[in-house]
What does this fold into?
Amino acid sequence: MTEGGKLIIFSAPSGSGKTTIVKHLLDQPELNLAFSISATSRPRRGKEKNGVNYYFMSVSQFKRHIKDGDFLEWEEVYRDNFYGTLKTEVERLWAEGKNVIFDIDVSGGLRIKKKFPEKTLAVFVKPPSVDELKIRLKKRSTESDDKINMRIAKASVELATAPQFDKIIKNYDLDVALNEAHKLVAKFVGAEIPDSKEQ
It folds into this structure.
């Protein structure tokens, strides 16, 4: 892979608010960020679009990409439910002169950090508690109770990996977490935060 800009990883248990934080950061022009779209073999949910939310592919297509070494990182999160980052996706964004931001699974985030230790800022978003996570996931109403319980069980394992990340942001208060994430990423990419945002 030809190297380009910086890599910023946000990982967290499902429901921690990392997607909200990533979306906020993408709206800050001085950070010069572009979102790395993950590939997945899971079915689309709701209004999700291919090439916007994810690159959707079948399990066999995904496995072929694994065999061909096309992924920077990948993982089978649940049975036949694969997620991964295509090398071509990161190269495409680097070619545009962007810093690349990821909203990915904990183990995927740590794998990228290991491959590009000098260029990567790995941030773990910590929820107030596992109970709070459960409330947030139920509010989404997108998944069955079984699926939520699977996510909660996984969250306990993921929380144990937090110390392996460069920074931990506690998302107890969203505005505080957004501000902290903004300052952290601005410092890492060498960007000035406009005065109006220094609240």
About this structure: The radius of gyration is 17 Å. The chain has a mean pLDDT of 92. The helical segments are 18-26, 59-67, 87-95, 106-115, 130-140, 145-159, 174-189. The chain has one domain: 7-193.
